[in-house]
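Severity: low
Component: inverse-folding endpoint
Summary: output formatting inconsistent between runs
Steps to reproduce: submit the following C-alpha cells with default settings.
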C-alpha cells in the first residue's frame, strides 16, 4: 500500500498502458509516475512513440490498454497542434487569451467606471463602488496589473516581439509555433508538456527558455533531441526504446552513462544465464542417456531429468539486450586536399533594405580547420554561407574560396515541399551510380525497400536531412558548409553525424544552434552580434564567456560616457557670444561620441530580453538624448557668437 504522503505528490500516473496503430504495437505495459515539481525528459529514437506517449498524458489520445490517473483539478498545458484563432487576431491577441478571465474582469471594471462617471444618486454610487471594489480585489489577486510585464517578458525571451502586431493567420508554421509556445508559458499550467520546444528558437531564446523552466513553479515534461538543453533542465529521463520504458533519475549526460552501464550489466547477466541454461540442458541430456543405459531403465534418473526440465521451463528468461542498434552508415570521403587557405571573407558588408546585417566582417579558414558561426536568428549567419557559395552577392568587401576547394553544402531548407522526385531519383541526380548500388547506399541511411520510391516532398524533416547526407557522403568535396546540420535528427543520428564530421579530412564551416555539437567539434567560433562578426578562438561555452566580457567592456564605456554627461550637465558653460573655434570642435566631438553611444544602446535595446537591463538602457538613452539636445543648443549659440 502506497503511503498517503507520497500519493499527494503524484500529479500523473500511468499503469500498464499500451498503444497500437494499424496493427503495429507502438508500446505496451508502460508504467510511470510524475511527481509535483518533476523535470522529466522523454527521449528515444524517431518513431519510438514519444509524442503518442505525451498525448496520452495530455488526454488528447487514449491508450488501448491500461489506465491513466490525473490528479483531480490538474491544469495541463500541451501544444499538440497549432490551434485555430479568429482571422483578425494578432500575435498579441493570441497571447492575451492566456489571461481571458483577467481581460473579462478588466472590461467589467471599465463598464463600472463609465457608469459611475455619469450622474447617479448616492445610493447607486455606493452600490457601484462596492461591486467595483470586489472586481478590483479579484483583478489584483489574479495579478491583473502584471499582465503586460508577463507578456513582455515572454515576448522578449522567445524573440517574438516582431510578431505581436502581425496577423496570426498570416504567420508561417514556425512563427505560429513560437507564438503558441509563448501562450502556453503564459498560461502557467500545473503540468507543462513540451514537444521539441527548442525548434525554431535561436540559442539566446533557448537559454532563456532553460532558465524559465528551471524557475517554473509547476511540473514539466519535455521531449527533445537537444542534449545540451536536456542537461540544463531535466532531473529525470524517461527512455522509450523497443516499446519499453526505463526511468533514470539523472540529467541527460548521467542517463547516457547509467544506460551504458545497465546494458553492459544486463548483457553480462544474459550471458551468465545462457551458460546456466546450456549446462542444464546438457545435464538433462546426460541423465536421460544414463537412465536409458541402465538395465532395467532407471526411473529415478528419468525423474531427476524431468524435474530439471520443469525448473528450466519455469526459469524467467532474460532478453538479450541490444548493444549495437541499426544507425546511419555515414562516412564522408574527402576529395584531393585543397590549398592551405580555404575561406576568405574580408571586410564584407550586407544589408536587406534598410536593415544592416553585418559590416566589415572578416573570416579566414585554413585547410582542416573547423569553425562555427553563431548568433541570433536574423543576424545574417546563413547569408554569410550563401555569399560564400555565390548565391547572394556581397555589397562591400571580398568573399571567395581558395584554390582547389570543392564545397558541399547542407542547407536547413533542403527540398521544396512539393517535390515530386522519388528518394532514389533525387539521390541519383547528385550521385552517378547504378540503381542497385544507389539502393544499397540508401539502405545505409535507413531507406529500405519501397521507401526509396517515396516522394521527396512527403518526407519528414529528418528523412530529408538523411537523404542530403547520403548525397554529400558520395560527392567529391573537401569543404563542408553546414547550415543547421542536426535539425530534425534524433539523438542517435546526431551522434553518427558528429562521428563522421570528426573523421572528415577536409575543412568545415557550420552554422548551428546545437550547443552540444558546437562544444564537441568546433574550436573556432565567429559570433555575429550587432552587425559585427567577432572571432573567438574556442568552442561555444568559451565564446559565450568571452562575449559576456566584450559586452561588459562596452557597458563600461557607456557608463563612462554617461558619467561625463552627468558632470557636464551639472556645470553648464556660461553663454558666450564670442566662442572660439576650439569650443566648437569640443562640442562637435562630444556630440559625435554621444550619437555613437545612442546608436549602440538603440541596437542593444532591440535585442535585449532582460526587463531590468531594458529599463536601464532606456534611462541611459533618455539622459544621452537630453545632453545631446543641450549640446546642439550650445553649438548654435557658439556659432552665432563668431
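Observed output (run 2 of 3):
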Amino acid at each position: 500500500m502506497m503511503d498517503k504522503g507520497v500519493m499527494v505528490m503524484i500529479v500523473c500516473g500511468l499503469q500498464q498502458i499500451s498503444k497500437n496503430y494499424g496493427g503495429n504495437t507502438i508500446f505496451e505495459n508502460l508504467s510511470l509516475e510524475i511527481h509535483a515539481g518533476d523535470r522529466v525528459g522523454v527521449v528515444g529514437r524517431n518513431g519510438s512513440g514519444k509524442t503518442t506517449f505525451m498525448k496520452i498524458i495530455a488526454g488528447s489520445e487514449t491508450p488501448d490498454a491500461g489506465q491513466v490517473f490525473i490528479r483531480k483539478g490538474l491544469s495541463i498545458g500541451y501544444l499538440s497542434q497549432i490551434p485555430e484563432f479568429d482571422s483578425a487576431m494578432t500575435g498579441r491577441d493570441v497571447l492575451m487569451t492566456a489571461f481571458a478571465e483577467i481581460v473579462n474582469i478588466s472590461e467589467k471594471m471599465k463598464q463600472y467606471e463609465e457608469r459611475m462617471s455619469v450622474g447617479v444618486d448616492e445610493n447607486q454610487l455606493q452600490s457601484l463602488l462596492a461591486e467595483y471594489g470586489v472586481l478590483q480585489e479579484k483583478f489584483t489577486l489574479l495579478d491583473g496589473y502584471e499582465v503586460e510585464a508577463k507578456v513582455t517578458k515572454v515576448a522578449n525571451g522567445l524573440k517574438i516581439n516582431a510578431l505581436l502586431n502581425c496577423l496570426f493567420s498570416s504567420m508561417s508554421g514556425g512563427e505560429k509555433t513560437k507564438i503558441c509556445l509563448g501562450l502556453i508559458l503564459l498560461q502557467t499550467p500545473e503540468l507543462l508538456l513540451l514537444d521539441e520546444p527548442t525548434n525554431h528558437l535561436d540559442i539566446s531564446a533557448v537559454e532563456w527558455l532553460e532558465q524559465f523552466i528551471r524557475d517554473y513553479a509547476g511540473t514539466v515534461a519535455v521531449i527533445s533531441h537537444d542534449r545540451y538543453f536536456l542537461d540544463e533542465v531535466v532531473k529525470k529521463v524517461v527512455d522509450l526504446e523497443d516499446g519499453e520504458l526505463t526511468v533514470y533519475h539523472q540529467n541527460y549526460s548521467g542517463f547516457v552513462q547509467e544506460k551504458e552501464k545497465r546494458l553492459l550489466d544486463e548483457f553480462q547477466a544474459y550471458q551468465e544465464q545462457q551458460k546456466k541454461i546450456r549446462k542444464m540442458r546438457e545435464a538433462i541430456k546426460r541423465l536421460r542417456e544414463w537412465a536409458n543405459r541402465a538395465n532395467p531403465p532407471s526411473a529415478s534418473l528419468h525423474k531427476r531429468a524431468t524435474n530439471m526440465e520443469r525448473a528450466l521451463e519455469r526459469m524467467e528468461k532474460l532478453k538479450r539486450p541490444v548493444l549495437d542498434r541499426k544507425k546511419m552508415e555515414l562516412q564522408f570521403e574527402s576529395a584531393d586536399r585543397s590549398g592551405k587557405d580555404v575561406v576568405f571573407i574580408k571586410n564584407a558588408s550586407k544589408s536587406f533594405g534598410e536593415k544592416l546585417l553585418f559590416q566589415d566582417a572578416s573570416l579566414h579558414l585554413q585547410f582542416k580547420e573547423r569553425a562555427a558561426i553563431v548568433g541570433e536568428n536574423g543576424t545574417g549567419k546563413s547569408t554569410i554561407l550563401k555569399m560564400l557559395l555565390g548565391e547572394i552577392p556581397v555589397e562591400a568587401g571580398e568573399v571567395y574560396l581558395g584554390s582547389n576547394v570543392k564545397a558541399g553544402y547542407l542547407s536547413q531548407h533542403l527540398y521544396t515541399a512539393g517535390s515530386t522526385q522519388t528518394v532514389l531519383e533525387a539521390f541519383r541526380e547528385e550521385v552517378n551510380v547504378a540503381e542497385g548500388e544507389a539502393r544499397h547506399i540508401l539502405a545505409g541511411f535507413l531507406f529500405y525497400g519501397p521507401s526509396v520510391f517515396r516522394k521527396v516532398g512527403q518526407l519528414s524533416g529528418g528523412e530529408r536531412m538523411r537523404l542530403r547526407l547520403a548525397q554529400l557522403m558520395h560527392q567529391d568535396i573537401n569543404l563542408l558548409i553546414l547550415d543547421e546540420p542536426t535539425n530534425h535528427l534524433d539523438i542517435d543520428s546526431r551522434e553518427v553525424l558528429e562521428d563522421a564530421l570528426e573523421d572528415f579530412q577536409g575543412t568545415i564551416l557550420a552554422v548551428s544552434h546545437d550547443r552540444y555539437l558546437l562544444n564537441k567539434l568546433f574550436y573556432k567560433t565567429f559570433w555575429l552580434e550587432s552587425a559585427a562578426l567577432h572571432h573567438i578562438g574556442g568552442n561555444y561555452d568559451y565564446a559565450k564567456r568571452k562575449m559576456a566580457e566584450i559586452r561588459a567592456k562596452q557597458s563600461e564605456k557607456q557608463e563612462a560616457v554617461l558619467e561625463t554627461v552627468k558632470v557636464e550637465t551639472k556645470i553648464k558653460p556660461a553663454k558666450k557670444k564670442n566662442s572660439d573655434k576650439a569650443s566648437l570642435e569640443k562640442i562637435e566631438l562630444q556630440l559625435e561620441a554621444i550619437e555613437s553611444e545612442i546608436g549602440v544602446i538603440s541596437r542593444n535595446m532591440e535585442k535585449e530580453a532582460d526587463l531590468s537591463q531594458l529599463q536601464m538602457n532606456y534611462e541611459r538613452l533618455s539622459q544621452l538624448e537630453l545632453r545631446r539636445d543641450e549640446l546642439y543648443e550650445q553649438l548654435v549659440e557658439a556659432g552665432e557668437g563668431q
